[in-house]
Design a protein that fits this description.
Layout (H helix, E strand, L loop, with lengths): L6 E5 L3 H11 L4 E5 L3 E6 L2 E7 L11 E6 L2 H12 L3 E2 L4 E3 L5 E6 L2 H5 L5 H9 L6 H5 L2
Parallel strand pairs: 1-4, 5-8
Antiparallel strand pairs: 2-3, 3-4, 6-7, 7-8
Length: about 140
């Protein structure tokens, strides 16, 4: 395979608005090309297509974009900006104002979950959280 795999996000007439919104949140991001039907954009060098597809389909948490964050500041940044005018859910999940589901997770979570002595306490801690708190997970 010689071509990159990328995500197509289906919007009801708001593809350009959504692409601009996402590019304003992520560093190293830009709209690459656009026409009335499709907007190609990159978030941190990851390619996306926003399609003005109409009202037939809606987003669901069955498909989500995952952002791994190294610091609490990164978690706070993405949580606040992507969740604004959306819905905050449990365990680091949120739906943005367009209905796209995101998981804002600490990079260290996989390491904490792989520790057999600690994993159950970590799970119990994050099941009580909406936004992940790194210090609470580490100290669980």
């Amino acid at each position: 395979m010689t071509k990159q795999i990328y995500t197509c996000l289906w919007f009801d007439g708001k593809a350009k608005e959504a692409a601009d919104y996402y590019c304003s949140i992520f560093e190293n991001s830009k709209v690459v090309s656009e026409n009335a039907m499709v907007v190609m954009f990159e978030l941190n060098n990851t390619k996306f297509m926003a399609l003005n597809g109409g009202p037939m389909y809606k987003f669901s948490p069955a498909t989500s974009q995952v952002i791994e964050c190294n610091t609490q500041e990164e978690i706070d940044h993405y949580w606040e900006l992507l969740g604004k005018d959306g819905t905050y859910n449990q365990c680091g999940w949120l739906d943005d104002k367009y209905g796209v589901s995101w998981q804002i997770v600490p990079t260290i979570l996989a390491q904490l979950m792989s520790d057999p002595e600690k994993s159950q306490r970590v799970i119990q801690a994050f099941m009580k959280m909406k936004k992940f708190d790194i210090d609470t997970l580490i100290n669980a």
